[in-house]
Amino acid sequence: MTPPPPQSPTRPSPDPTGVEATDLAAVVALRELADRLEDAAVERAMRAGWSWTQVAEALGVTRQAVHKKHLRRLEVAGIELRRRSNA
Questions:
Q1: For residue 28, what are the CA distances in angstroms to 11, 18, 39, 84?
Q2: CB count, 10 Å around CB of 77?
Q3: Strand locations in 1-87 (E)
Q4: What is the pLDDT of residue 67?
Q5: Which helix H or strand E contains 13, and what residues bound it?
């Protein structure tokens, strides 16, 4: 008969209210702030006539990533968006 696998030592649950929790809450707040700043900056750039490619290069991402993330919000805001010419 095979013996049961050894049990891992039990660890006490971490305190969800310590310094680590405060640090993680700060990370969440910074991410949310960064998202709002990006939204505002992209909207300003698109209102100023920037192309998707220019915005993407400034953000260090692909044109497709910027388009996917911001298109619907910009359309709802009534912003005139530059379209690629197929010529």
A1: 26, 16, 17, 36
A2: 12
A3: none
A4: 95
A5: none
**45-53 CB contacts, 8 Å cutoff, 24+ apart:** 46/70, 46/74, 46/79, 46/81, 46/82, 47/79, 49/82, 50/82, 51/82, 52/82
pLDDT of residue 11: 76
pTM, entire model: 0.73
Lookup: tokens for 41: 């900056």
- H or E stretch including 10? none
pLDDT, tens only, 12-67: 777 778 899 999 999 999 999 999 999 999 999 999 999 999 999 999 999 999 99
Q: How far apart are CA 25 and CA 36, in angstroms?
A: 17
Record the tokens describing residue 12, joined without a space. 């006490």
60: tokens are: 């260090």
